[in-house]
């Protein structure tokens, strides 16, 4: 078993957030890693739900804020729903993922997780007017 670090960065390389998850298999598909990441984010939110959510993708009925999303009211989130949204966002190029020095291009691509390995999620923001 290994520990993986999930890091978010902007397209310019500015770090946004990072967290570790221990006890993961040493080989997982990107789809499994995205689902693991989202499940962990939602579990952390649901442990003390507030009106802000800091995660990979925007929950339903939430507004975008700096470094997160504002929920209309504090509530529990469904991790499976969030994971589906994240998978679709990846397929629509809403973000891309770097594993070491390479870009992971397919959801079913296997990623080697060495202890302390990091996955960088680069969020892409659509240009205004474009």
| CATH class membership | Alpha Beta
**Uncertain regions: pLDDT < 50 for 5+ in a row?**
none
CATH topology: Ubiquitin-like (UB roll)
CATH architecture: Roll
Helix content: 10-25%
Number of discrete domains: 1
Shape: globular
Number of helices: 2
Give me the secondary-structure category. Answer: alpha+beta
Work out the strand percent.
35-45%
| Largest sheet, strands/sense/barrel | 5 strands, mixed
- Taken in chain order, the helices and strands follow as EEEHEEEHEEEE
Radius of gyration: 14 Å
Question: How many beta strands in the DSSP annotation?
Answer: 10
Distance between the termini: 44 Å
Averaging pLDDT over every residue, what do you get?
Answer: 90
Strand order of the largest sheet: 2-1-10-7-8
The CATH H-level homologous superfamily: Phosphatidylinositol 3-kinase Catalytic Subunit, Chain A, domain 1
Briefly, what is this?
By secondary structure, the chain is an alpha+beta fold.
Question: Explain this structure to me?
Answer:
- The chain has 130 residues and is of the alpha+beta class.
- It has one domain: Phosphatidylinositol 3-kinase Catalytic Subunit, Chain A, domain 1 (Ubiquitin-like (UB roll)).
- Helix content is 24%, strand content 38%.
- The chain is built from 2 helices and 10 strands, in the order βββαβββαββββ.
- It has helices at residues 30-47, 79-91; strands spanning 2-9, 15-24, 27-29, 52-53, 62-65, 68-71, 95-99, 102-104, 110-112, 117-123.
- The strands form 3 sheets. Strands 2-1-10-7-8 form a 5-stranded mixed sheet, with helices on one face.
- β5 (62-65) and β6 (68-71) form a beta hairpin.
- The longest helix has 18 residues, at 30-47.
- The model has no long low-confidence stretch (mean pLDDT 90).
């Amino acid at each position: 078993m290994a520990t993986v670090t999930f890091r978010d960065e902007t397209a310019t390389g500015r770090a946004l957030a990072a967290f570790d998850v221990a006890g993961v298999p040493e080989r997982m598909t990107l789809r499994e890693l995205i689902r693991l990441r989202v499940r962990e984010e939602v579990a952390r939110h649901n442990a003390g739900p507030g009106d802000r959510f800091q995660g990979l993708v925007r929950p339903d009925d939430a507004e975008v804020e700096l470094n997160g999303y504002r929920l209309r009211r504090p509530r529990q989130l469904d991790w499976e729903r969030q994971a589906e949204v994240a998978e679709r966002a990846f397929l629509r190029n809403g973000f891309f993922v770097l594993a070491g020095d390479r870009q992971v291009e397919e959801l079913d691509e296997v990623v080697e997780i060495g202890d302390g390995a990091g996955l960088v999620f680069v969020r892409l923001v659509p240009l205004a007017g474009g």
